[in-house]
Amino acid sequence: MAPQYAPSLRSRLPPLLLFLQTGFIVIYAFYTDIEGYVKERDGNTFSNFYPEFQDVNVMVILGFGFLWTFLVRYGFSGAGFNLLVAVVATQCAVILNGIDSWYYRGKIRINLRSLVDAEMCAASALISIGAVLGKTNPVQLVLMALLEVSGFVLNEWLLHTLLKVRPLKDMRLHIFGAFFGLMLTWILHRDGSKQQFEKEKFGRKTGLFSMLGSIFLWMFWPSFNSVLVDAHTPGRKLDAVCSTYLALAVSAVTAAALSVLSSPKGKVNLIHMHSCILAGGVAVGVSISGVHQPWEAMAIGFTAAVVSTIGFRYLKNHMLRAFQCHDTCAILSTHGLPGLLGWLAQLLLQIRDCDNHTMAIRFAVVHICTVLFTISLSVAMGIITGLLLKWNIWRPSQDRKCFDDQAFWEDVPHLKICNFQGL
Q: Could you tell me the residue range of the domain that residue 237 belongs to?
């Protein structure tokens, strides 16, 4: 007979977290330094950059945290584990991103820019969590975040070393995070996902909290994309903010319309609104360097919403049946497909604006190699991570304990209500 409760993580989670945090403190004590002086010409003064840092921080903690609370019995874990993974991944990313600075200067320089870059690396891990949400324990999530952040930073270093390019983080974090998560959930496939897990259900209150997370992400996405553009080019940040807002507005309207059209009852699907309204922000963020006109951003937002909504409605079930890939939050439709669409839009827009055919061909080759290399590395890292997390040493939960806060949290309110009603 299977045990009534999930295996205890007392011998796994506390030692892992304490070991990691002690190691981070030691590294920060000897090899880091806060950069107090920032040149005015860099545009990264405290007063100029702190609002952008604050917006990105809200997206990572509040936006994704509330977004993962849509499951009825997994709200505590969705929000709580998001915070845990985000802070661990950010601390790790600061160190990994600063290796070059440590090599040449002897110290890892920490400033608001480095924190924002680290949180964007963490955002890639949070995207991947959506694919395995509810089917993994916090030990597996922390290990997954460390490996993915390492792969994400490695991808940037290899692209800069081999192809001599530095693509936008927005392109890599959506595409890398989506395909990493898909490979992870494919390797960690459970038999219980064939007929849908017993507790994989949505609720009215949890859906409202999840919609709140989507609204946070929707509101702060223009600032998120503006951080990525070059501050030295006059007007580019304003262009990024305006283009992102227009793309998000169009995607929200389009997602609502298509949700009604694709519904057998002709009603709006709240799950579609959670994620598909963000598709425009994802796509235009990837293609932001090539977008110069408002109609271009709006067209990208419209197309992204169409692709995301249709993918959300039909692709998730086909992925499960055909490839045994149970994507809990449909991150392929939310981040992967809009990210690839934005990549294609950037390629076409840049070629259109290029007068020199030789330069256009060279740009196309490098651009294609960049996305293929990113996908290949994310797939390889996802497979490696999945094989590692599949070991029973991490004490994964039984199928009937997936999507249940009871496995990890004390005094869960809905369990008390259920027990009281059963008396």
A: 27-34+48-418
For residues 343-359, give the mean pLDDT: 88
Q: Is 272 contained in some domain?
A: yes
Q: Tell me, what's the pLDDT at 134?
A: 87
Contact 187, 387 (CB under 8 A): yes
In a domain, 175, yes or no: yes
pTM equals 0.90
* Per-residue pLDDT, 267: 86
Give the Cα separation of 160 and 355 in Å (integer). Answer: 25
**pLDDT digit string, tens, across residues 29-72:** 999 998 765 554 445 567 778 888 999 999 999 999 999 888 88
Whole-angstrom Cα distance, residue 19 to residue 54?
29
CATH code for the domain of 194: 1.10.3430.10
Q: Does the pLDDT of residue 26 top 80, yes or no? A: yes
DSSP 381: H
Q: How far apart are CA 49 and CA 104, in angstroms?
A: 25
Whether residue 99 lies inside any domain: the answer is yes
Res. 413 pLDDT band, cuts 50 70 90:
low
**Where do runs of H (alpha helix) occur along 98-235?**
99-105, 112-132, 138-158, 169-187, 204-226
User: Could you give the number of structural domains in the chain?
Assistant: 1
Are the beta carbons of 236 and 292 closer than 8 angstroms?
Answer: no
User: Which residues does residue 108 pair with via DSSP β-bridges, in sequence order?
Assistant: 32
Q: Which helix (H) or strand (E) holds 420?
A: helix 413-422
pLDDT of 280 strictly over 70: yes
To 10 degrees, the CA torsion angle through 181, 184, 185, 187? 160
Average pLDDT over residues 280-298: 91
Q: SS3 sequence, 250-316?
A: HHHHHHHHHHHHHCCCCCCCHHHHHHHCCHHHHHHHHCCCCCCCHHHHHHHHHHHHHHHHHHHHHHH
CA distance linking residue 123 with residue 86, whole number of Å: 7
Residue 32, φ and ψ in degrees, nearest 5: -125, 160
- Record the tokens describing residue 326, joined without a space: 């149970």
Give domain status of residue 183, yes or no. yes
pLDDT at residue number 1: 38
